[in-house]
């Protein structure tokens, strides 16, 4: 049973469009918009609460099972025209399936992180494509969880959700105001805390003996980690480089760090 | 001495704007548009022939030395208004410096590749951000050269140039029609040829003993390497994965492969 929407002035459509565009509105509503069959299905299977679901006639024809599943999971479902669907889309060729989802509780959950695992810390990562890629890689490599500062771009932005391939729904994540208190708390729990820095004097990541549990912290694309965050960490590690480029892209650097961490940890069986 | 452009109908501006937007026009003219202080300077220092240079009054004030250098290197220089500069820009906040550059000769130069080095092969990579990131990483990690199929997106597109951080100007690259003949030619030269595949039966990249010279090939984002390219290679290698994600982003996968290749090769001293 779906309600039918014919006007772009419909409050549910306007609400969803605002969730698409404004990080502030997402925070205020504690909700976000997921787009596309795959991402919506990922949300549903990850136990994300689906408040509203929107779909087009065309989507129902192309993806009948997925629309059915999502209609069942959603508290309310709406049928809308292709044209209205365009207004909810961040892509060039919308599939015509959208879900308004309740944000997951990512705050204050350092305690929920795997106490024996390998974690990643991200300080003030600005680019949504970078953040999405890093989260996708973290999941692919089996990272136990990610700690992000509130200075990072919004994990519920369309680009991050899409780039992460749904990892946002599944990865344990904690949002913290600033990094140093989190680093200190993890150290108390027995984590080895490591700051990634572009400094040839730091320990090459290839020579670090990663013991579990540990965390590697990666900083902002332009400025790197804050001095106080570097000071809060027990060790400073770096990616040795051979070529001429000044540095690696932030998502590649984070990926190589995670790779070395997982490669070196006994569980990895790489 | 610069000519002053006041109209957007000026043929030099229209020509540059077409180079920005059309890969076909770039190929036809054998030229491309580089934007921004850093990229234009990289082009100049890399021996790229600068046919025309455009700058704004504001750019001259902010970057006097760079404008001076580029004016000297360029065959013709033009001063233009901020507004006209906006029309040549692929960025939100243009710096007001642009160079029309002659394409480098990247064809038919398998012979120019380091015969004792580690190479990367890219087949039909579609996303310009991925390609730019991969080229940047290749340079940062000291890869000897990159072989690309013509099915890859244009290396002179604004996104690839920017994402590569100028690596396009410096990395030895060869553009080939299809991969199998290039693979065969490299094998003849003594290269070990390896196809990267998402297949748990293939050799884990962490256990490969890379001998120099060698090449790893990476395929299209959606479809991977073509079957005939995989067959042309001597070995099949894969990135072992631990988490739940189906796969890694193409630029991250290529980065991890290059990293392992350089890490394992004796010269690396990682």
Task: Provide a quick synopsis of the model.
The structure is a homodimer of 270-residue chains. Chain A is of the alpha/beta class and 270 residues long.
Low-confidence stretches of chain A: none
Note the overall shape of chain A. elongated
Q: How would you characterize the largest beta sheet of chain A?
A: 7 strands, parallel
Order of helices and strands of chain A: EHHEHEHHEHEEHEHHEHEEEHEH
Give the proportion of residues in helices of chain A.
25-40%
Spatial sequence of strands, sheet with the most strands of chain A: 8-7-6-11-9-12-10
Chain pair with largest interface: A-B, 36 and 36 residues
Oligomer class: homodimer
Which class do the helix and strand fractions of chain A yield? alpha/beta
Number of distinct beta strands of chain A: 12
- What percentage of amino acids of chain A are in beta strands? 15-25%
Number of helices of chain A: 12
SSE map:
The structure is a homodimer of 270-residue chains.
Chain A: E1 3-5, H1 11-21, H2 23-29, E2 31-35, H3 37-45, E3 50-56, H4 57-62, H5 64-73, E4 76-80, H6 82-86, E5 97-102, E6 118-122, H7 128-141, E7 145-149, H8 158-163, H9 167-170, E8 173-176, H10 179-188, E9 192-196, E10 203-204, E11 214-218, H11 227-232, E12 235-238, H12 250-264
Parallel strand pairs in A: 1-4, 3-4, 6-7, 6-11, 7-8, 9-11, 9-12, 10-12
Antiparallel strand pairs in A: 2-5, 3-5
């Amino acid at each position: 049973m779906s309600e039918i929407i014919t006007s772009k002035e419909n409050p549910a459509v306007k609400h969803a469009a605002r969730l698409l565009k404004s990080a502030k509105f997402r925070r205020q509503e504690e909700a976000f918009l997921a787009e596309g069959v795959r991402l919506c299905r990922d949300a549903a299977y990850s136990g994300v609460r689906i408040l509203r679901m929107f779909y087009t006639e065309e989507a129902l024809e192309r993806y009948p099972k997925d629309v059915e599943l999502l209609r069942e999971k959603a508290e309310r479902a709406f049928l809308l025209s292709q044209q209205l669907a365009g207004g909810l889309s961040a892509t060039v060729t919308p599939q015509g399936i959208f879900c308004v989802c309740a944000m997951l509780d990512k705050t204050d959950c350092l305690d929920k992180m795997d106490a024996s695992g390998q974690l990643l810390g991200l300080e003030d990562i600005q680019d949504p494509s970078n953040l999405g890629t890093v989260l996708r890689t973290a999941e692919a490599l089996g990272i136990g969880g990610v700690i992000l500062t509130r200075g990072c771009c919004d994990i519920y932005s369309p680009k991050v959700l899409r780039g992460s391939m749904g990892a946002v729904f599944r990865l344990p994540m904690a949002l913290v105001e600033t990094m140093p208190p989190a680093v200190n708390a993890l150290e108390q729990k027995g984590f080895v805390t490591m700051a990634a820095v572009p400094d040839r004097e730091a320990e090459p990541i290839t020579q670090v003996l990663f013991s579990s549990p540990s965390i590697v912290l990666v900083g902002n694309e332009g400025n790197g980690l804050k001095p106080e965050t570097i000071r809060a960490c027990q060790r400073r590690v770096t990616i040795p480089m051979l070529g001429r480029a000044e540095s690696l892209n932030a998502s590649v650097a984070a990926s190589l760090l995670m790779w070395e961490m997982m490669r070196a940890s006994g569980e990895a069986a790489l």
